Amino acid sequence: MYNLLCSHEFDQTTELASKCADLGKDLILCKHIPEDVRQNVVNIMYRLEKHLSRFSPKLDEEELAKLKPENRYEDYDITFPKAVLESMADKMDNSPQSDAGLLVSYLAVLHYICAASKGARRYCRLQILPPLKSSDVQRRPDEGDTLRAKVIRLMMSAGPCAEMAAELLFTLCKQSPGRMMKYCGLGHAAGLFANKGLFGSINNRIRRASDSDDSDTEDYRQVEHQVNPVTGFINPLRDNSAWESMSDEQKEFEAMKLVNAMSKLMDTGVIQPGTIGEDGKPRAVEHVCEFLRNQPDPKEASDSD
């Protein structure tokens, strides 16, 4: 069945495809089916992404009253995305590392349904990327046993899950580079930004008043200014006594030594520093002095006249 769905000739708009999707949904909602069967069903649903939007609809009050409280979120039926998310979390915890590649289908199904349904996206975001607390930014975003940390680790892995994990997180962040940086750190999200040409937008962290699902806890707001946007957490304090005891001339001398060292590494091909091109994607620089271009003159900035 999966091989048939992978065929470029398979038409997802047919009645057969619709019936396959409905049957797959029913099987995923079954609690007592073998794990290998559940995996096969999720693989099939991955190839039926055009039908996933039907499985987290917005309901009226009468329809909502028929659902169990745990299967509704706001005005949406989240029975299906909840079941997929729980199955994925269980697989993360109970499968060997060698089977991590099997999570691609789970990530893809969640990505597609969250992209199509606001209710599914908000529910999954609450589970994977809940409002940050001050304790969450005391360590790296990929450390710990939370779903957020586990999905970020998949995004940073060298396996097949990396791209789809990044797409899911980006969808949960409403495709906002600033929000992605907030939850993952620029270092973890750099690959996604590079592929999408979004490096030119990473400073756009303006919150919209209508973005009601981007709430922060009060204790996080108190430490937000301490968070390193590159690492995504509060870096431990470093001993800067050596720099503090230097004169400005000594600091400038050390800075030029660093520039010359980087230039030699570039000339020998050991490293290839990059900058952001006009298309928002990284490009190689010919000389480290390119980093100084378009930088504001501190003297002009301080000249109030």
From TrEMBL:
Signal peptide region: none
GO annotation, cellular component aspect: cell cortex
UniProt entry tagged with the keyword Chloroplast: no
Coiled coil: none
Chaperone as UniProt keyword: yes
GO MF annotations, alphabetized: G-protein alpha-subunit binding; guanyl-nucleotide exchange factor activity
One of the protein's GO biological processes: G protein-coupled receptor signaling pathway
Keyword tags: Chaperone, Cytoplasm, Guanine-nucleotide releasing factor
Location (main, coarse): cytoplasm
Subcellular location: Cytoplasm, Cell cortex
Family: Belongs to the synembryn family.
PANTHER family found in the cross-reference section: SYNEMBRYN
Protein name: Synembryn-A
